[in-house]
Design goal:
alpha/beta; Rossmann fold; N-(1-d-carboxylethyl)-l-norvaline Dehydrogenase, domain 2; 2 domains; 16 strands; about 15% strand
């Protein structure tokens, strides 16, 4: 059976143009809009625009833009395995091959939103990008699209758009706006257009959170058999989701997703929510996985199920990270509990080695702020965070640098490859095992942005735990946890 036989699709006017046909947007934005249509609070559809030539839209056309989102994981202690056929996408166009149809979207009276996920590299300014034909970059495409709308409606004040980038960079809306204004200047577009951009369009900065693994390669037939129909676009993600939307103008009445219980927060300052995610979710990963890997585990779920590593991760988050986040403590605790459930997801095998990529810069961004705030707030070192730093050094300790990375061995003898910036790997190759190794790492301001030996007792404590980890990681974990 084909998916088109499973659902009756209601047609809605196009309210959103979406740059990107990838898994995340389909299981996040389009999923939420589908629910909003069902609840009667949105009444609009999405036109997907494939911004680059790579890939195909054939499956969208074959399935009338229908697809299934499967949400699998744990939520409030229960295993979730839900499916939903998404009907909110009405068109799927290729920006190049369907250029005229794509640009015609700018003429739609009903259009109100632009959503994008063009990867972190997508929001970049290229002053060599051309206004003629189809611009190469996403900011170029958006600038020309907005100019098309501006001219189509003679600069009407009420025809500006709400721009919602979800690319994983800080202040994504502000940076996209800067790119658009810069290109308008480079392309010598009218001053009145620049004023229209500034006065009539809303560039929101957003923070998004949902793990989406996408199409189930290797077991798609089994999934479709369970669904009872064929779906070439089936999209799998976790139940947890969060969309924080920051803007100077309140847009919540036009996008009332929060009114129907969806996990959307409208705010004029997303910084505390970004800090919460980076410190709690990402910080839990970075402070725990390297010790977990040396301990002999391979995936996040197994860390949570293990009595020792499970306790380490829960305690480092609950005792040392959560109290330092600048949001109401109960709210942060609830978020931390949701993170633990996500880590226990029975449907996702999240490899520790994949999380270990670029751990030096990750520790600086995700864990160091909690270390500093803990010291400031408590007048002493955080025991488990300090241990995590020692585990990072133990994980990186090796002199065997090859073309594809720094090779090291776990206590059990199995080899692994450390991937990081070349300068980082070269430092550890030159320093590992030498006298003064710990001090050299702590003093490396290129790594941490400051000299960590300035924190009283930090270097000596790291040296102590590093030695214990190298001797016996199991005993070290037991000792640091007081077991």
């Amino acid at each position: 059976m084909n998916i088109k036989e499973k659902v009756s699709k209601k047609e809605y006017p196009i309210k959103a143009v979406q740059f990107g046909e990838g898994n995340f947007l389909r299981a996040f934005v389009d999923y939420m809009i589908d629910i909003a249509n069902e609840k009667g609070v949105f009444g609009g559809s999405v036109a997907i625009v494939k911004p680059i030539s790579f890939g195909s839209l054939d499956a969208f056309r074959e399935q009338d833009n229908l697809y299934t989102v499967l949400l699998r994981g744990k939520e409030n202690g229960k295993v979730i395995n839900d499916s939903r056929i998404i009907t909110s996408v009405s068109r799927a166009l290729d920006a190049g091959d369907d250029y005229d149809e794509y640009m015609a979207l700018a003429h739609l009276e009903t259009l109100r939103f632009v959503v994008s996920n063009t990867t972190e590299a997508g929001i970049v300014l290229d002053t060599k990008d051309s206004f003629d034909g189809l611009p190469t970059t996403y900011p170029g495409k958006l600038t020309k699209f907005l100019y098309e709308r501006y001219t189509a409606f003679d600069g009407a004040h009420d025809k500006g758009l709400i721009i919602l980038p979800v690319e994983l960079i800080e202040n994504n809306g502000g940076k996209l706006r800067e790119c658009v204004l810069s290109l308008a200047k480079v392309w010598n577009l009218p001053d009145a257009f620049v004023s229209w951009i500034n006065d009539c369009n809303v560039f929101c900065s957003t923070l998004v959170d949902r793990i989406v693994t996408g199409y189930p390669k290797g077991y798609a037939d089994k999934v479709c058999e369970e669904l009872g129909y064929e779906d070439k676009l089936v999209d799998i993600g976790e139940p947890f989701a969060l969309w924080v939307i920051e803007s100077d103008k309140d847009i919540s009445d036009e996008l009332p997703l929060d009114k129907i219980g969806l996990p959307v927060i409208f705010t004029d300052n997303q910084k505390p929510y970004r800090e919460r995610k980076v410190r709690v979710l990402n910080g839990a990963h970075t402070s725990g996985v390297l010790a977990g890997y040396l301990y002999g585990l391979d995936i996040v779920r197994d860390c949570m199920k293990d009595d020792v590593m499970g306790e380490f991760i829960r305690r480092v988050v609950t005792d040392e990270i959560v109290p330092q986040v600048a949001l109401p403590i109960e709210e942060v605790k609830a978020f931390a509990n949701s993170v633990f459930e996500r880590f226990e997801n029975p449907f996702i095998d999240h490899a520790l080695l994949s999380i270990s990529l670029n751990s030096v810069s990750k520790w600086k961004a995700r864990v160091l702020p909690s270390l500093k705030d803990y010291i400031k707030n408590n007048g002493q070192l955080p025991r488990l965070i300090t241990f995590s730093f020692a585990a990072l050094l133990a994980f990186y300790s090796s002199n065997d640098l090859r073309e594809d990375g720094l090779y090291a061995k776990r206590p059990a003898g199995d080899e692994y490859v450390i991937h990081d910036d070349r300068a980082v790997l070269e430092f550890f190759r030159e320093s590992s095992g030498k006298d003064g190794f710990i001090e050299a790492v702590c003093k490396n301001t290129d790594f941490w942005g400051e000299d960590l030996t300035q924190y009283d007792g930090f270097t000596d404590t790291v040296k102590y735990w590093y030695g214990k980890i190298r001797e016996n990681i199991s005993d070290a974990l037991g000792e640091v946890l007081g077991q």
